[in-house]
Write a structure and sequence with these properties.
150 residues; mainly alpha; Helix Hairpins; 3 helices; 2 strands; rod-shaped
Length: 150
Amino acid sequence: MDYNSMAGAEGDIREPMNEQAIANVYASMRNEINQFYSKITELEMEVSEHSLVINAIKPLDPSRRCYRMIGGVLVERTIREVLPAVQRNKEGLEEVIARLNEASEKKKKELAEFEAKYKIRIRKGDAEMKDESKKEGNAQGVLVGPAGSN
């Protein structure tokens, strides 16, 4: 949802927006940024899987049989056929990740401008503050030295 869509049909933003509308737009913008992060993380995992496959089959004989899942169907191919396709897929995923990162940065700038315009500040809830203080104050660990060292 674009906060400009909250304006009238002419495209001008009516001032002042009520607090609930501002909160809704702000929450929507933050949700979009979180969706970008989720998708980027998912695609980075796929790139990692592609890298594992590439590293596993690259040193093998190019005429060796391998199997590839295409549209839910397992097909038999050779490494010579599969390796370039997997590399192209990996490169495509990396391009999509780069575009998503750019879009995410743009959305973060929009969010920062929105925060500045409406003087929005995030306050942590009392429960979160208590949880954080517990985490910091109760950090305990066990140090173990080499066996037989006294």
